[in-house]
Amino acid sequence: QVQLVESGGGLVQPGGSLRLSCAASGFTLDRYAIAWFRQSPGKEREDGEAISCISSVNGITYYSDSMKGRFAISRDIDKNTVYLQMDSLKPEDTAVYYCARYGLKFCPSVPAGSLFSSWGQGTQVSVSS
Question: Is the dihedral of CA 101, 81, 75, 73 positive or negative?
């Protein structure tokens, strides 16, 4: 059974950092690309574009333009876990963050949520002073 479990969310002050984890089970990270999405208040999740994506082959990464330089995706194959390091957090980063599995090894060129079939339950990130 495919399962993704996010953790690491919480309340952080502006300018702070968090590292989210996405623990995968039922499959191995060396076969599927994994992406992070977020759902801001009042917005849809699956229609959005991924914040970041990491391919199973050589760990090739993708970032949306607005996240470049502040967020970093990585993976630990031995732990079957994908991470999202988030630095210089802003109040507008407040959202529920989800990880999702793509059906292929490489991230899609435009990683839209509708292309991803398996999702975690999400973890809340709140950025506020």
Answer: positive
User: Are the C-beta atoms of residues 49 and 111 closer than 8 Å to each other?
Assistant: yes
Q: Is the model's pLDDT at 70 over the cut of 90? A: yes
Q: Please write the tens of the pLDDT for every residue from 4-54.
A: 999 999 999 999 999 999 999 999 999 999 999 999 888 877 567 899 999
One-letter amino acid at 87 equals D
Please tell me the chain's helix, strand, coil percentages from 3-state DSSP, rounded to the nearest 5: 5, 45, 50
Task: List the 81-86 sheet strands across, edge first.
Answer: 3-7, 18-25, 81-86, 71-76
Q: How confident is the model at residue 68 (pLDDT cuts 50, 70, 90)?
A: confident
HEC sequence for 3-62: EEEEECCEEECCCCCEEEEEEEECCCCCCCCEEEEEECCCCCCCCCECCEEECCCCCCEE
Is residue 50 packed enough to be buried (19+ CB in 10 Å), middle (13-18) or exposed (0-12)?
buried
Tokens linked to 95 = 């959202």
